[in-house]
Amino acid sequence: MSNTAAPVAALIPAPRPSVDDSDAVSVLPGLFVPEASQWLSTSSGRIAGDGYSWMQTVHWVAGSGLYKPRRHRSHGPRSFGATTVRVAQELAQLFPCRPGIEYLMRRTGLSERSVEYHLGMLREAGLLAWIVKGTRVSGGPAQASEFARMIPPEFDRALGIRTVQRDEDAPAYTRAASGIAKADRKLMAKLAQKASRKVRKPRSKTSSKAPARGARKAADQGTATAVSDEARCTPMQVGTSAVSPAGGTYFPPESKLASGASKSPTPKKGKAKAAGGRRKLNAVGRRFRLAGELTRRVEWLRGCSVPRIAWVAREVADAGWTSDEVLAWLEIRGTAERVRRGSGLLAVLLASATTVLDTPAKRTSAVEQWHRAEEARRRHRIERVRAARERHDGGWQAPASRAVRREVEAAIDQLLSPAPAPVDVEEGQGLVLDGTKTFELGDEELAPLITAMREELAYGRTELVSAAIETLGAEEATRVLGEGLVRRALQLEGLARSSAIAFGTR
Questions:
Q1: Which long-range contacts (CB under 8 A, 24 or more apart) does 438-442 make?
Q2: pLDDT tens digits, residue range 14-29?
Q3: How many CB atoms are located within 10 Å of the residue 43 CB?
């Protein structure tokens, strides 16, 4: 155990003896999670609600001495110390927690092997669990691993934290804290104080003697690592401090369990947030919120820079306009068919918005008018789609072009013109197929054939007549079948090859 972590270990409460066996002495087991249990699905811990509460657990593990890496390996760091806390501090700020090795090397100044050592220590201590394990494919980019920040069950038992599973069907790692033992609230407040401080890399010993004095002072106070003695302004606290404030300004769920009697340096919640309400945005926050809504709802603003749209819409945002009111104003002004620069067009359209719609009543009226216009456009689209579907499913519609209509009417007149009387077939009339054999057809054989040809012509089919023309020839088919039947079949074949009209059955 490092000297800097010793004061935290002294604050760990001794396990309470059992009621049945008051003389028995129980000791917390050492922290170690085997590789098979370092996945989220196999972990025995619970997911941390946020990075702040997770850092409380990290500082507790660093000061408890329950995890000693050299018990399980013969190489790597000797203890869970300051460098591991700095790596965990970077992981606490990632949402989701998908750190790349190169990113952690750049942020912490460590080597690749050192980063891998400390990530492995966090997994073995039960503070990290794999969700997706990264891969390295030859010739392709390396895929970063995704972790879940976990709170080991030893932490809950040591501090007397009670957990509850709100959803019975959910996995066990989704349980949440519901209470804490009264005797352990002081320790929770101290851990909250440590989690609010940003751990930095200590300066080299050759630079000056002041960092060494600052390091000794920080060690006396029980911090995880030494930091520079530069006075940093902490607007969320009183006075100045030798350490930086917390990365976030919110409390973890466990911080609500700390005793109110102990004076905590962490910022207190406002009345609105303590009551469960949302934090009130300032002017810049309202601008960015309006800009985000506009880039999602206005089609020609998609892809635009949100900060630039926030600057363009700053006047209406400061006046308290909502996205519906801005859309109603754009409906009144109108937009261009082709937009090359959305932010520039928005700046032109919003130039006189606050002057024209200068009261909430006018803006409300504009929004109502915009809603009515949207409803009218929606009904128009429905009617247009319905009419197109009826035209598609209904009967044939006359073409719009007059020339095409004249050609269609002429073709229909030819089809509907009365066919000449059938040619009487005399006895002994024959059909010559190949010039060697003659087949004699009488009235009984020829009349059903001509009737079948006429029925097919009525449906626009000319297969039988075409076969007869190809077999007998045009002159012989005209003599046998009749001039009207052959001429009508040839007309249908010509119209079928034209693009102006099509025959067939539905």
A1: 441/480
A2: 444 433 333 333 456 6
A3: 23
